[in-house]
Amino acid sequence: MAKLQKSIDKRNALVKATIELVNNNGFHATPMSKIAKMAKVSPATIYLYFENKQDLVNQTYIDVKAEYTKYAFANYDPTMPIKEGFEMIWKRIADFKLKECEYAMFLAQCDNTPMIDEESRQEGIKHLQPLLDLWERGKKEGVIKPISDYILYAYAINPLSFLMMTQKSGAFTLDKTHLEEAYQSAWSSIKMCK
């Protein structure tokens, strides 16, 4: 059991180092040697857990996406009314992005660059299925605009990454009023006008 835990700890250290280095230096300026050094393992140890750098980054992306969506959907009930369900998910996503800034920054980098392969990107999208299902139900009920899920995500969720980055840089501090205004803007951008 101790050997298994030591193995899990090493893999987690590699994932943590990858997140930190990619966030600070970018994907291309993060060699395996730096990841190993930060994780306090030998470079050869990486290859016990990952095939190569691409596999390491892809697996890290999937791990972080799973944590993100587990948090986002923790209290969500798929039978909730559309607006109530969206508000709960949106506010949980906002909370995650502000509390788990390193994870959120890593996901933002991955979502905005071609560093994640398509198979891993599709795996990451599967983690968002409850939100996609809510939007689909909302479209059928005439509550959500009948547009692409990518456009819905771009208008409703992606602005949170911008707000997180401006807060992290110290340019703007999000308080409860700002978060409520951001939520209302997100909802307004995707709801059908009545």
From TrEMBL:
KW Transcription (keyword) present: no
InterPro entries per UniProt: Homeodomain-like_sf, HTH-type_Tx_Regulator, HTH_TetR, TetR-like_HI_0893_C
An annotated Gene Ontology molecular function: DNA binding
DNA-binding annotation, residue ranges on this chain: 31-50
Coiled-coil stretches: none
Signal peptide location: none
Keywords: DNA-binding
Occurrences of domain HTH tetR-type (ranges): 8-68
Transmembrane feature ranges: none
Domain of life: Bacteria
PANTHER family with a match to the protein in the record: ACREF/ENVCD OPERON REPRESSOR-RELATED, ACREF_ENVCD OPERON REPRESSOR-RELATED
UniProt protein name: TetR/AcrR family transcriptional regulator
Native organism: Polaribacter marinus
